[in-house]
């Protein structure tokens, strides 16, 4: 059974870089056909797709966030990482890592990141 777990600081100062890691267990992030996504939900707002990395390591980003978003992976640790630079309070959200196969079928529990001085 595949499980995903987000980790990273819960508080980031404005203008700094938010960095979150998703550790995947029970399956390889390099397995054929799978995509690994980051999704966030600001307080009181809808879910927002941030970006993804495919099983071949190709990355995809939300056009609205692309200029300051980076997703990478470490296949030896079975992890993928989100970096969001120059954050503002508007980046405060619960961040989820998810797996895509025929849909977003496995989700981490989510982690709240607050951007505040």
Write the layout of secondary structure elements.
Layout: E1 3-7, E2 11-12, E3 18-25, E4 35-41, E5 48-54, E6 59-61, E7 69-74, E8 79-84, E9 93-100, E10 104-107, E11 111-115
Parallel strand pairs: 2-11
Antiparallel strand pairs: 1-3, 3-8, 4-5, 4-9, 5-6, 7-8, 9-10, 9-11
Describe the model:
0% of the residues lie in helices and 52% in strands. The protein is mainly beta and 117 residues long. Strands 2, 4, 5, 6, 9, 10 and 11 form a seven-stranded mixed beta sheet that branches. A four-stranded antiparallel beta sheet has the order 1-3-8-7, with no helix packed on it. A hairpin with a 4-residue loop joins β7 (69-74) and β8. The model has no long low-confidence stretch (mean pLDDT 97).
Q: Notable features of this structure?
A:
117 residues; mainly beta; seven-stranded mixed sheet; four-stranded antiparallel sheet; globular
